[in-house]
């Protein structure tokens, strides 16, 4: 497995966060456009900003920030849930 510059961290790089902020801004602009009318011009401007953010994300190779951890092994233990049906045994 290749060594990652972000070993042990799920934070991502600043360039990836920049792309995410652009997409979030576009989503916010589009949402405002929908709630004030709807104002379709503002909505489509927000959609265009999201598309620009998507292109920026691809250009900065946002997917290289993905970190794959080793599988976690959880020990199996008894779990009592109030939603489980348990058979009552009568002795």
UniProtKB/TrEMBL annotation:
Q: Which UniProt keywords apply?
A: Membrane, Transmembrane, Transmembrane helix
Q: What residues form the membrane-spanning segments?
A: 17-36, 42-64
Name of the protein: HGxxPAAW family protein
Which species is this record about? Microtetraspora glauca
